[in-house]
Every structure is written in C-alpha cells, then in structure tokens.
Amino acid sequence: MASHDDDTMPEETQGYKLSQPKQSLAAYQKMDANDESLQRYKESLGLGGGTDLSDPKDPRVCIILSLSMESEGQPPVTIDLSAPGSEATLKDKPFKIKEGVKFTMVATFKVQHEILSGLHYVQVVKRKGIRVSKDSEMIGSYAPNTDKQPVYTKRFQSEEAPSGMIARGHYNAISSFVDDDKKKHLEFEWSFDIAKDW
Fold first, then answer.
1. 67: which DSSP letter?
2. Out of 25, 29, 145, 185, which could bridge 62 as a Cys pair, Cβ 3.0 to 4.6 Å?
C-alpha cells in the first residue's frame, strides 16, 4: 500500500531526466546573450525584465494564492489559500458540486527568489477512506513574478463530476503542489459533496 507521501507526489515519467541542473536566477540571466535559442528559452521562463516582486522576508519560492472551480452558469467556487494557515479548516467546509456537471480547476500563484521548475498539481480523492481517483497535472516552470507579471494563473483540463445515485455523497481530497525537486510547496485537505443539484 502506498504511503500518504507517495500518494501526493506526481507519477514518475519513465526515462525523464532534467536536461541540465537547476541554476540560480543570476546564472540564467547571465547566459550567453548572443545565443538566439537561449534568449527564447529565457523569455519562456519569464526572464524578460521587470521589477522583481520577491519578498525578502518570505522564504517561500511558490505561494499558492487560490484554487477555484469554474462551471458554466455558476459563480466560481474559490478556495482562498493566500493567508498562511488558511488551508487548515478547508476539510470541515465542504462545497457542493452538481452531479454530471463539467468544471475546470484554476490555480493562481506567485513565484519568488528563484526559478520554479516543473510544478505539478496532484489531487487524491477518497470516499469513505477508499481512494477513488488520483490526478496529476503539470503546471510548468516559472520565473519569479515581476511588476509585468504579478501573478500566474493555470487553467487545468476540464473534468466532469461523476453522476448517478452511487456517485452522490461526501468526498475528501488531498491536494499538493510539488516541483521537479520533489519539494511540496503546499499540501492541504478539503472536501466536497456530489449532489443532485447545486
């Protein structure tokens, strides 16, 4: 049986290896300015300028601000994760999802101090203590936020809530944001109910 820590880590991709070791932000910025492909690579990481917004008093590299569920015809349901410790009470405040509805999850986050490489979102859903699903989605690699890009937003693939009498009920979920270095930037428990209607 997989441990809790293994459960909330992204699946390993067979044969995948980082192409180069992680470097400091200063090292990336000083890389050969005459190399056109390297310039495109640096721009794709967001190293195109702007004033760094990193807070020197906050050592976190990735700060998850919110996780939202959007469904057509409904106001978004947003889990505010911006305040430290805000995730502690989420498990006790379930939100309702209508059975069979299509929805999209959206993460809003900030990066500071260094390049964040290979951020994943991993979600494990359990019902009555039994795991019913494990989903992992690659969010990507990001440079520290600047005044040109104060926050990042990632829309995940659309999903469909289960439907039918057996699917209705209470579910518990554990979500984590993990990078390529296996560092968990945030892990939290939350819950939801699948119901016949909103």
1. E
2. 185
What is the CATH code of the structural domain delimited by 53-195? 2.70.50.30
Cα 47–Cα 59–Cα 62 angle in degrees, nearest 5: 55
Cα separation, 25 vs 35, whole angstroms: 18
Instruction: Give the residue from 142, 154, 183 showing the smallest Cα distance to 59.
Output: 183
Q: 136-154, pLDDT tens digit by residue?
A: 999 999 999 999 889 999 9
Cα 170 to chain centroid, rounded: 23
Phi first, then psi: give them for residue 84, nearest 5 degrees: -55, 135
The residue ranges of every structural domain in the chain are: 53-195
Q: Which two tokens stand for residue 10?
A: 């992204």
CB within 8 Å of 161: residues ≥ 6 apart: 97, 98, 99, 100, 101, 102, 103, 167, 194
Instruction: With beta carbons less than 8 A apart as the criterion, state whether 174 and 124 touch.
Output: yes
**Burial class of 14 by CB neighbour count within 10 A (0 to 12, 13 to 18, 19+):** exposed
